[in-house]
Amino acid sequence: MNVFEPPSKTAASGQHLSGGADDGPENAVRRRGDGAAGARAASRVAAPPAIGSFRRLPPLNALRTFEAAARHLSFTKAAGELHVTPAAVGQQVRLLEDFVGVPLFHRTSRTLALTDAGAACLPEIREAFERLAAAVARINSADQAGPLNISVAPSLAAKWLLPRLERFEAAHPEIDVRVEAAMQVVDLHRSNVDLAIRYGPGRYPGLVVERLMGEAVVPVCSPVLLQGEHPLRTPDDIRFHTLLHDDSPDDDQTCPNWAMWLRAAGVEGVDASRGPRFNQSSLVLEAAVLGRGVALAKARIAAADLAAGRVVKPFEITQPVEFSYYMVCIEAKARMRKIEVFREWLRAEAAQG
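RE: above sequence
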């Protein structure tokens, strides 16, 4: 018995089909004999079913529920496995029985047993689910095997992501990470980029968005500026040094600049506009490493250089930035394992500073 296609009312009632208008195409072929026309007709009957035939399948949830109930021989245990109520299990089983036109279980007040029809179809249903699971596993395996393409701004890539990426590669050598560093915002719906780290207000319609970490600005300089003719000991000493400006295009007017920082530090009489300007955060930081002056740098971008001692914070006056860093991807890729693994790693790295 084929449980995937509901029987006709005649077949369900047990009547025998023996010719006439009710004959199916197989009987019609047999009556046409062994001629060429009959052979062609038989060939047509033996052809695989068209895609539309899958519409005659019963609901997948009903099949899954039947398989669980048949395996446990208990609606209650099946309900526990599927996280539904026993009544819901019974409803799905009845739906399948109505579809195939025969009972699949013998029910009593104390026991549940498979009918002959239920026992006959169970192995094939179980095999079908195993094949579905294998197909999904192959899809996941293909996703995992392909490269993981990450889009990130150049400064964050160079100063924050790359110094940490070796740890991810050591923990997950099976994932091939490819970093695309660009200031341009990539259209994730039309590119091969799997995940982007964006710096901004967090409003990205049509994408799955998760805040990764915040940002702040801090003054940093080369250790050599702590010595010499005008060592940096108080904020007022900044008047003797060159101001390095971060003019990154991804910032807006809310990002603290030198004028805001000097005002917060109580420093007066300093021209906050003087000094060279750079269009990338990594460049203003590199100028500070070279001793060119004092930079008002993003703390996340400066973290690796601060940890290595290439720059220092002469003062602990920090100002928060309204923008944050966000992990974004399209909905279709959000549950890909390689993306989930990388996002989990990013969260852990961001939590460390």
